[in-house]
Amino acid sequence: MLPAGGDSDPAIPFRRAGERLRFTDLAAFSAAGIARITVREPRIRVIPVRGSGIINAAARLVTADIDRRGGVARLDDSGRGLGVAMAAESADAIVAIGGTGSGRNDNSVQTLAREGRLAVYGIALAPGETGAFGFVGIRPVLLLPGRLDAALSVWLVVGRRLLDRLAAAKSSESEPTETMPLARKVSSTVGLAEVVPVRRNAGEAEPLATKYLPLSSLARSDGWILVPANSEGYSAGTSVQVRPWP
């Protein structure tokens, strides 16, 4: 026998607005007789603008991360026009991958500027400098570069924040991090934030690459660190926050 309120104190809420729900929370709600709750599930349309294997791989990665973090992702077929997706009303936001560079067929930024509103083109983030952001009506549109490392970097730093804002998630909720000393120095350019892949090595975080992140570095790494734009980097032995990859 439990005293009144022993299982659930009315003055202490199970969960607060803006917090992500876990399967444990749903089980506790059900056991307490709560049959219905209101949640926010942002609908995100993910568009690989070309049929490139690299762009498709990045699109699948972003789609899986959206679903895992509480959104509802719709992955379009490769090559579907960005303008067609922007004209539809079936999503709360659009994430398009590819076409942000200066090549002859890179027209994603021009399409956003012509048919919506281009707010930012060029992000002080390495990799990912050619990322862009804007709106079609009130819906945000995030354009990721067509390189896997650059698309991943922009999604981690900008896209996840966009998803959290749409879900009204508390900014204090973040991926679990692990504090580790840096195995060797990481140099960075002031004014440019950098995503750096690292692997665990004898209790330290060993940086594997900077600026351009080879596929081998992504595959061999255990997580990533973010060097802020106001930093020239970290010296060896500095404690850093290692974040897991999606």
How would you explain this protein's 3D organization?
It is a single chain. This protein is an alpha/beta fold. The chain has 2 domains: 43-166, MoaB/Mog-like domain (Molybdenum Cofactor Biosythetic Enzyme, Chain A), CATH 3.40.980; 178-242, Beta Barrel (Beta-clip). The protein is 26% helix and 26% strand. It is built from 6 helices and 14 strands. The protein has helices at 23-31, 53-68, 82-87, 108-115, 148-166, 215-220, and strands at 43-48, 72-75, 93-97, 117-121, 125-126, 132-136, 139-144, 178-181, 186-187, 193-201, 204-207, 223-227, 233-234, 239-242. A 6-stranded mixed β-sheet has the order 2-1-3-7-6-4, sandwiched between helices. Strands 5, 10, 11 and 12 form a 4-stranded mixed β-sheet that branches. It has a two-stranded antiparallel sheet with strand order 8-14.
Layout of secondary structure:
Layout: H1 23-31, E1 43-48, H2 53-68, E2 72-75, H3 82-87, E3 93-97, H4 108-115, E4 117-121, E5 125-126, E6 132-136, E7 139-144, H5 148-166, E8 178-181, E9 186-187, E10 193-201, E11 204-207, H6 215-220, E12 223-227, E13 233-234, E14 239-242
Parallel strand pairs: 1-2, 1-3, 3-7, 5-10
Antiparallel strand pairs: 4-6, 6-7, 8-14, 9-13, 10-11, 10-12
